[in-house]
Amino acid sequence: MLTLKEKIGYGIGAFGKDLVYALVSGFILFYFNDVLGISASFTGVMMMIAMLFDAFNDPIMGVLVEKTRSKYGKFRPWIFLGTLLNAFVLYLMFSIPSSFTGGTLLFYASLMYVLWGMTYTLMDIPFWSMIPSLTKPGKEREELSVIGRTSSSIGFAIPTVLTMIVVPLLASSERLGFSYFALFIAIIFVITEIICVLSVKEKTTENKKTVKVKDMFKALLRNDQTLIVVIGIVIFNASTTLTTQLALYFFKYDIGNEQFFSLFGAIGGASQIISMAIFPLLRKQFNLQQMLYLAIGGCIFGYLVLFILASIKLTYIALLGIAAFIIYFGGGIITILTTVFLSDTIEYGEYKNGDRNESVTFSMQTFVVKLASALAVLIAGIGLDLVGLNQNLPVQSEQTLLGLRLIMTVLPIIGLIIMIIIFKRKYILNDNKMKEIINVLNNKK
Predict the structure, then answer these.
(1) Cβ-contact 110, 381 below 8 angstroms
(2) In 3-state terms, the chain is what percent helix, strand and coil (to 5)?
(3) Roughly how many angstroms between the first and final C-alpha of the chain, as a whole number?
(4) Which of 18, 30, 243, 350 holds its CA 20 to 30 A away from the CA of 251?
(5) Per-residue model confidence (pLDDT) at position 127
(6) Do 218 and 349 touch, CB atoms closer than 8 A?
């Protein structure tokens, strides 16, 4: 049974790792493009290639972890090593010398981003894979998963809210401010993961099936409902990641106040936590499909409000905050629902094909989220150049601002509408269908 020390230690580890992830996922495009002056199109293409490589690298990391044998276990050595390397690369990536220009700058920035993704995978895959070695199936495992995910959410929210407030306070230039802030985050990251590694102890030797990329695609093609859910996950995550990548540009240039970005993120983060907390209450009132349509509808409405407010220059933070609350509330619900839907497709696969494929199905979730992120950063990077955004100009043209606004809000709306249509027409695993499937499976057993 897990001790309180182990639970707290694991939560601290989850908190620290998402501090780093939030800083990179939310601000690296802005740092490369707006601070260093690297072409947004180049950054978008480079990040897409790196993310695709990282997505296919996940199963390889899983194999390495499974083959590891040491007196410290097979997970903790990788967490410790990956943390040290990733923290070092994080600092280097946000501390690119001002003497680097032209091809040297592009090569160095690309190399650091690829290395960051590789070293983060070194510790991220074993961190979440460690749960079965710390707990046994049931309440204890679910509890640790909740602790980990909640702590991650808190860690993710902090850089989202504080980065653009703290960076200007640390130095006279954004370039140097990002370097100092990245160093601070890197130090906290190392401390939290050391606490985690020293606090927890792998207790079981439960072996997980090593998942290969070809296994993912085989399972996907054999289970039509898994395919529908995976497409939905890709569309949803690509839409929300697009918003994340462009939000800082939106508030800095279109709204005209980049400090609003921090408040927007804080309200959105709080809204998401609230939506996840009251999910069980909503479940009592609505079936899963109704919740999905209401949540997507809420997100679309929030995006429309954001678009209208920016278009008519009604940029009060209270009104923008309402839009943030609506968008992220719906996003929190959708995040839980897609996980539930993916779980249901496992029973459906056993019902239809006689195969459960649990490990393959859930490994696919991380895989496709990275694919969605790759698509989003490509669109964001190329989109910034297509609309003609010039970070050297204090004021952008109305045409540029409209283009930025359309990519930031209307493209996600289109994606979410497509998601509704796909689920409405193709997803069949409603409550009644799942009861029928469970009954059949129980009778077979």
Answers:
(1) no
(2) 85, 0, 15
(3) 31
(4) 18
(5) 87
(6) no
Q: Rounded distance, CA 321 to CA 263, Å? A: 8
Contacts 24+ apart (CB under 8 A), 90-96: 90/20, 90/23, 90/24, 90/116, 90/182, 90/185, 90/186, 90/189, 91/179, 91/182, 91/183, 91/186, 93/24, 93/28, 93/182, 94/31, 94/178, 94/179, 94/181, 94/182, 95/179, 95/182, 95/183, 96/36
Mean pLDDT for the stretch of residues 336-348: 83
pLDDT of residue 169: 95
Distances (CA, A) of 176 to 162, 171, 320: 16, 6, 30
pLDDT in tens, 168-185: 999 999 999 999 999 999
Look-up of token digits 């690829």 = 114
Contact indicator for 423, 228 with CB cutoff of 8 Å:
yes
SS3 81: helix
Reference 5, options 154, 200, 150, 241; nearest CA is: 200
Model confidence pLDDT, tens digit, residues 111-121 = 999 999 999 98
Residue 138 has pLDDT above 70, yes or no: no
DSSP 33: I
Mean pLDDT, rounded, of the chain:
88
- Integer-rounded Cα radius of gyration of the chain: 22
Q: At which residue do the structure tokens 């395919």 appear?
A: 227
Residue 293 exposed, middle or buried by CB count within 10 Å (0-12, 13-18, 19+): middle
**Is the distance from CB of 238 to CB of 375 less than 8 angstroms?**
yes
State the residue for tokens 């952008």: 396
Residue 241 near residue 21, CB atoms below 8 Å: no
User: Using one digit for the tens of pLDDT, what is the confidence trace for 308-332?
Assistant: 999 998 888 899 999 999 999 999 8
pLDDT at 415: 96
**Proportion of the chain above pLDDT 90, given as a percent:** 56
Q: Alpha-carbon distance 119 to 130, whole Å?
A: 17
Kindly tell me the number of DSSP H helices and DSSP E strands found in the chain: 17, 0
Q: What burial class does residue 310 get, using C-beta atoms within 10 Å of its C-beta: 0-12 exposed, 13-18 middle, 19+ buried?
A: buried
pLDDT digit string, tens, across residues 370-408: 888 889 999 999 999 999 998 888 789 999 999 999 999
- Supply angle C-alpha 420, 426, 430, rounded to 5: 85
382 SS3 class:
helix
User: Is the pLDDT score of 434 beyond 90?
Assistant: no
Tokens 């908190």, residue? 15
Which sign does the torsion angle of CA 354, 355, 356, 361 carry? negative
